Amino acid sequence: MVPHQAWTHQDGQLLAQLPNAIRELLDCTTLVIVSNRGPVEFHQTSDGDFVTKRGTGGVITAMSAAARYAEAIWVACAMTSADRLKAEEMRRRGEPFLDLPDLPGFRLRFVVPDPSAYQGYYNRIANPLLWFLQHYLWDTPRAPDIDYRTWQAWHEGYVVVNRLFAEEVVAAAAAVPREPIILLQDYHLYLVPAFIRELRPDLLLHHFVHIPWPDQDYWRLLPLVMRRAICEGLLANDIVGFQTPRHARSFLNTVDANLPDAEVDYRRREVAYRGRITRVRVYPISIDPELVRAVANSEDARRHEEHLQAYRNEFTIVRVDRAEPSKNVVRGFLAYDRLLEAHPELIGRVNFLAFLVPTRMEVAEYINYLDEINAVVGRINAKYANAAEVEGIHWQPVHLFVGDDYPRALAAMRFYDVLLVNAIFDGMNLVAKEGALLNERNGVLILSEGAGAYQQLGQWALTVSPTDIEGTAQALWRGLTMPEAERAWRAEQLRRHVLEHDLRRWLIDQLQDIADLRAERAPHRVAAPS
Ligand code: F6P
Q: Which of 180-189, 346-355, 379-388 has the lowest mean pLDDT?
């Protein structure tokens, strides 16, 4: 989930705490952050004035923090018609960047693809094809069908937009006075590094993949041409980062299986390919505790907390997710249904509050999934409303809150008895970390083995296999009835871990690797390490 004020949070103290090598790096470089979605979207009011709205998503939250430390340029796709107008205006004036007066620390450069290219790139290749593949979501006897439309979307969408991104990055790099360091984000941009290399072989390229990297066999669902291009694109980076060691290992295996000329060194986690070395590293992403607490303590969140009191019960289960298939929302409700069947004594005493953010509503798979969620919730509520009425109780077992309201979601995290995170696969899952930080009732975390967060938090959570509805129902029961001492101990360990492994650490680990690499390449340029 996404804090709303990430960019306004300047913190001189954190800057002072940076290791010397990183401070020196940031003093003489400009970070060029590159992602599909930018930190803001422009919208036009009826009077023709431009207003900005914060972009959503984990990438933005995480990379916004980078601007606390350094001069940062953001290269992102124009999403709205007002974004396009702004980009045009900027070009007309011959300015390289848009200044964002209300967002100190950021300057922006838009990539402006033609709408049909964007449609192929985002709505056909990135989502669903790559997203579904990387989260193991395909029902393989039926999907994906790589037909001529997919190929067209690949050539005229994904490749074209990735090339446009590379051109804009190169233009941005040329327009900054300090040495640019390019920080590419995620699966939309796998081909960008190779295109940048054609134009600027000298730039330092770092790419972080926020989502899982599946087993190399599963990648065979994509034609060889596509998976080779993806591997080659990523190997044009100096460093490629993943959320977990398992994802990093899968990437090395995928390169090994698809590029016969690549030399993969599994011990050093490096690949030599076409005269270059790419380092493969692991950086588990996290939250900024101070910022999350600030939003949770805001007036807005407090108002929500008061309002949500009415929805609580003797036991309260909470989930917070984007409404998309990898989050496994439907099976979560089926498990709740099973819990109520197995433990009728809970009828009237437990409420399930689900906070869901609709996403990618241009893609059929996501629209259908939201419909499935609504259907299963309707069915459960009807079924138990009848059962409760027989006993003279008015009770609604599931309350669905649909919409993008981060303060409201954080408000709910304070009071859960159980937080359900049963994603099928997930790069990390920051909800698990936000919940661990904010909860005030020693609430129990139920965590899927498929979430990246499991590798860090699994030992203090109740583990579920995401397809195991019966097991999830049992975990819900165990979580709701766990003795207080055990709840308190687990909650304390979770909170401690999240505080010690925060977003700052995620960023610093990456910057440290970049500083080390720069120092190795040009030792004379770098002052004594810290
Ligand atoms: O890492 C996955 C991610 O890129 C996150 O930033 C965010 O949760 C989501 O995907 C954003 O998706 P979109 O930009 O398509 O809404």
A: 379-388
Q: Is the CB–ligand 1 distance for residue 427 below 6 Å?
A: yes
Whether residue 41 contacts residue 52, with contact meaning beta carbons closer than 8 Å, is answered with: yes
- In the chain, % of residues over pLDDT 90: 84
Report yes or no: 503 and 288 within 8 Å, Cβ to Cβ.
yes
Q: Up-side HSE of residue 209: CA atoms within 13 Å toward CB?
A: 34
Q: How far is the CA of 497 from the centre of ligand 1 (A)?
A: 25
Of 34, 118, 131, 210, which is best to mutate to test ligand 1, by the most ligand atoms within 8 angstroms of its C-beta? 210
Q: Is 359 in the pocket of ligand 1 (CB under 6 A)?
A: yes
Q: Cα(6)–Cα(409) distance, rounded to whole angstroms?
A: 16
Alpha-carbon Rg for the chain in angstroms: 24
Query: Does the reported pTM lie above 0.85?
Result: yes
Residue 144: asked if its preceding bond is cis (omega within 30°), the reply is yes
106 close to 7: Cβ distance less than 8 angstroms: yes
Cross-sheet strand order for the sheet of 29-34: 98-99, 106-111, 72-77, 29-34, 179-185, 204-208, 239-242, 276-282, 270-273, 263-265
Q: Are 49 and 74 in contact (CB under 8 A)?
A: no
Mean pLDDT estimate for the chain: 93
Domains of the chain by start residue, with CATH: 9-111+165-286+505-524 (3.40.50.2000), 289-501 (3.40.50.2000)
